[in-house]
Q: What sequence folds into this?
């Protein structure tokens, strides 16, 4: 048996986690507040739509997915006070007015004949943008200082990917004609334009780009308004 | 999307046939049995009943459509009520005509999380019920769907909705699943017994959520609590289905006292529901007697 008193490196050779991260505590809390708001809007929409879709399999999936996004919102709600935000409601808000407009357009389809539009909004626009925002956050935050956020992101991304696949398969099973392809594409384009105007779930800089500014001890940080 | 959803618009595929409570009670296949001939001493759903298979299938279909409505109800609660502190939603609601002074539509975030959890549970119950119905030899749409559950339970006041959905409707589900679980045990159907046992665990959780939130939200508002409890007893009476559920053996479904206790009902509340259910049974029996007397008079006139 190896001598337990023999000095060992604090980080095992296979542990390549790094300290630098793109977000400071304040920026992390801001992003997480925007994620929480968006997850709330998504689970409210899914729950509300259950009664409006005639397709039984879709109805059951919406009910199931509704809970997953509520749970994501709960994880973010619990993370906020750990980021010095003792009043989680303060930061639980849309990234900007364009995000509010996006959610309004997302939830606009209501009649039973518009299941395709409802699913397109969620599974071809909103959820892919969640996947992008969360992946960017996971890959750019400090792997050591922000480990609790990364752990939540792993769980949440797993759900998002599973639901994305399920929703996409439901859509493919519902879209039968060239006209329905056009309907889906037109609705996707309309919502995508609104999302582009919002700059993503957490606003401009959601997945980096020009809103990323250099600064901070770890090399750089992000601010939606471009202020470092 | 509108804030409140009318029961007439619940979306269904073409297999479903929706009816009112009145139509339901007039259905000769109603679980309470036929209105003609000598009434049975016991109507409790047990395998020895001559019509046990058909009655169990009918009840299973009733559970299936009830689960769909419970799923829709829980989903609507996630959507219809604003989360406390959601200023953007408040502005949106006001833009759509909400009263600026009316703040009673806001509910705690944790309450909405519970409702979303319930939506998932109810979605699983629909899945289970579809598979059980198939196992028991019936098809989707074989029996009509009574939409009274959604109609009665979906109040526009969140606390009344909690009382209606989570205490009255879900309380009824506890009674139904207990009876169905016992039926599965007696009939030697471990598959049915197993599934009902799992669903029963979820329903006890849902009623407990209702009991806890009702207490918490109305802690400093005794009037609101009183109003909610009154609403619940009205819904409970409606859900007694003209005597379909009571302590009496004449009712196909019993009152699951022990599980109701676990779910946060007090002894007094259970006694009140027992009384309301028995009164509903007596009312139904009197109505049946009146129908039989009228039929006898008609028969006498026709043969003379
Ligand atoms: Fe249920
Ligand atoms: Fe339930």
A:
């Amino acid at each position: 048996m190896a001598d337990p008193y023999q000095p060992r490196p604090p980080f095992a050779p296979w542990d390549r986690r790094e300290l630098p991260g793109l977000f400071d505590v304040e920026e992390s809390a801001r992003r997480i507040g925007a994620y929480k708001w968006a997850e709330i809007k998504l689970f409210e929409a899914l729950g509300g739509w259950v009664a409006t879709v005639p397709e039984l399999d879709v109805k059951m999936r919406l009910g199931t997915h509704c809970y997953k996004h509520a749970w994501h919102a709960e994880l973010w709600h619990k993370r906020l006070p750990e980021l010095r935000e003792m009043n989680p409601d303060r930061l639980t808000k849309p990234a900007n007015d364009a995000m509010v407009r996006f959610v309004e357009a997302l939830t606009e389809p209501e009649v039973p004949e518009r299941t395709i539009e409802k699913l397109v909004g969620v599974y071809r626009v909103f959820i892919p943008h969640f996947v992008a925002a969360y992946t960017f956050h996971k890959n750019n935050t400090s792997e050591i200082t922000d480990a609790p956020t990364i752990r939540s992101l792993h769980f949440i991304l797993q759900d998002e990917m599973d639901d994305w696949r399920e929703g996409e398969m439901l859509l493919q099973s519902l879209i039968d004609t060239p006209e329905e392809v056009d309907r889906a594409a037109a609705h996707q384009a309309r919502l995508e334009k609104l999302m582009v105007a919002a700059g993503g779930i957490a606003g401009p800089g959601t997945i980096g780009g020009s809103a990323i500014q250099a600064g901070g001890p770890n090399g750089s940080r992000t601010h939606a308004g471009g202020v470092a | 999307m509108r804030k409140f959803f009318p029961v007439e618009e619940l979306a269904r595929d073409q297999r479903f046939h929706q009816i009112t409570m009145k139509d339901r009670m007039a259905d000769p296949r109603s679980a309470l049995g036929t209105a003609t001939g000598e009434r049975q001493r016991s109507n409790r759903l047990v395998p020895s009943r001559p019509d046990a298979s058909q009655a169990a299938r009918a009840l299973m279909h009733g559970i299936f459509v009830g689960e769909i409505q419970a799923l829709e109800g829980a989903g609507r609660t996630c959507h219809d009520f604003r989360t406390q502190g959601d200023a953007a939603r408040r502005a949106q609601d006001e833009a759509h005509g909400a009263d600026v002074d009316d703040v009673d539509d806001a509910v705690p975030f944790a309450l909405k999380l519970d409702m979303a959890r319930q939506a998932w549970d109810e979605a699983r119950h629909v899945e289970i019920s579809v598979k059980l119905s198939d196992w028991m030899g019936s098809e989707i749409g074989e029996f009509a769907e009574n939409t009274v559950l959604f109609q009665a339970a979906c109040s526009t006041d969140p606390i009344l909705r909690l009382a209606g959905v989570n205490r009255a409707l879900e309380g009824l589900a506890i009674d139904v699943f207990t009876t169905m679980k016992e039926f599965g045990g007696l009939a030697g159907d471990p598959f049915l017994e197993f599934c009902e046992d799992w669903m029963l665990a979820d329903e006890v959780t849902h009623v407990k959520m209702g009991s806890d939130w009702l207490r918490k939200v109305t802690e400093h508002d005794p009037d609101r609590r009183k109003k909610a409890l009154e609403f619940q007893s009205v819904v409970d009476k409606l859900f007694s289905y003209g005597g379909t559920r009571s302590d009496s053996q004449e009712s196909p479904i019993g009152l699951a006292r022990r599980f109701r206790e676990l779910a946060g009902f007090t002894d007094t509340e259970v006694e009140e529901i027992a009384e309301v259910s028995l009164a509903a049974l007596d009312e139904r029996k009197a109505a049946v007697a009146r129908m039989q007397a009228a039929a006898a008079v008609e028969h006498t006139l026709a043969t003379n």
About this structure: Confidence is low (pLDDT under 50) at residues 214-228 of chain A.
